[in-house]
Design a protein that fits this description.
It is built from 13 helices and 2 strands. It is an all-alpha fold and 325 residues long. The protein folds into 2 domains: 158 residues, Up-down Bundle (Ferritin); 153 residues, no CATH class. A two-stranded parallel ribbon has the order 1-2. The N terminus is likely disordered.
């Protein structure tokens, strides 16, 4: 890293030709990024994809203006200079990192790109003495600043209320598929499957510390197992359920939390106090599961509560009976 930075050129040391060359390559990169966003969004968010297509065309126009000016002032040969060649110059995050963000995050990333480009043109305009170059750079700074209005116009053109509602529904569905469903499955597994071993150990030993250790081991082990199982079960390419690592993380973490909820009370040394709190936590977990099913899965609350709470109560009773036997 030190070697690379040492051979970068400071922005203040660039001459006017290099500034123009840097602006040309930056506009080209931004157009490619916008087209990548558009291609990534086209399947689920066609209206937003059209917005990024329009922004890419804008960047192409800026690039051509810069190339025309470079030909007039310096000729046809444009020096190869890019953002990564300039010390302290703003960088873009790799597209493959941003692609995994949600729609609103991608839009926010685009706004940040335009703001950074505006600052670049404003700074570059102050560095040039040629009137035509200064004018063009100033115009481009104003254009970047005005891209919010341009984006709003494109939104009005391509993203009417019906399209916006459709994209909102699509985004919600994707959120449910990628995060809520795996997380809910993990929470149910962690909350219910660990009930029997934790309460059986509690009533069999009467030892709160050993019960806690058993609960901790069961929760963490179940979380790791559920996380890897979810990630390996479906890569999301056909089902559209999203990144397997996101789903695996959601499932694994929620499984662990579900088990730890009623294991942590056994850090209390008094057995009956710990057990009473643990049972209260169990019913809070089960009602939370029913609420999530109702809120995100559109399951009638009464039916969800009956299924989850009744089933969880049976597992809890089984654990207590086995431990007391």
């Amino acid at each position: 890293m030190t070697f690379q930075i040492a051979y970068r050129k400071r922005f203040s040391d660039l001459n006017e030709q290099e500034i123009l060359a840097l602006a040309i390559s930056s506009e080209e990169d931004d157009a490619r990024i916008y087209r990548s966003y558009a291609e990534h969004l086209r399947g689920d968010f066609p209206a937003s994809a059209a917005i990024f297509d329009g922004m890419a065309v804008e960047e192409d126009g800026h690039r051509q203006q810069l190339i025309d000016l470079h030909k007039v002032r310096f000729g046809d040969v444009i020096p190869l200079i890019r953002r990564e060649h300039v010390s302290g110059f703003y960088n873009r995050r790799p597209v493959w990192l941003v692609e995994n963000l949600g729609l609103e995050k991608i839009r926010g990333e685009a706004e940040a790109m335009e703001a950074a480009a505006q600052r670049f043109y404003e700074t570059a305009a102050k560095r040039t003495t040629d009137a035509d170059t200064r004018k063009l750079l100033g115009d481009l700074a104003a254009a970047e600043a005005g891209h919010t209005a341009k984006a709003d116009a494109l939104v009005d053109e391509h993203l009417g209320s019906d399209a916006h509602d459709q994209e909102a529904r699509t985004a919600h569905r994707q959120f449910v598929l990628t995060w809520v469903q795996p997380g809910l499955a993990g929470l149910m597994d962690g909350s219910v499957s660990t009930l029997a071993p934790i309460f059986a150990a509690a009533f069999a030993t009467g030892d709160t510390w050993n019960t806690f250790l058993i609960g901790l081991a069961a929760s963490v082990g179940a979380g790791i197992s559920m996380g890897f199982t979810e990630a390996a079960s479906d890569d999301g390419s056909i089902s559209g359920r999203g990144s397997p690592w996101k789903r695996g993380f959601a499932s694994g973490i929620m499984t662990t939390i579900g088990g730890l909820g009623h294991a942590l009370p056994y850090l209390i040394t008094d057995f009956w106090t710990a057990t009473t709190i643990a049972i209260i936590v169990v019913f809070i977990e089960l009602w939370a599961i029913a609420w999530i099913q109702n809120r995100y899965m559109e399951t009638p609350f009464f039916r969800a509560a009956l299924q989850v709470v009744f089933g969880g109560a049976l597992v809890l009773a089984a654990g207590i009976l086995i431990g007391s036997g």
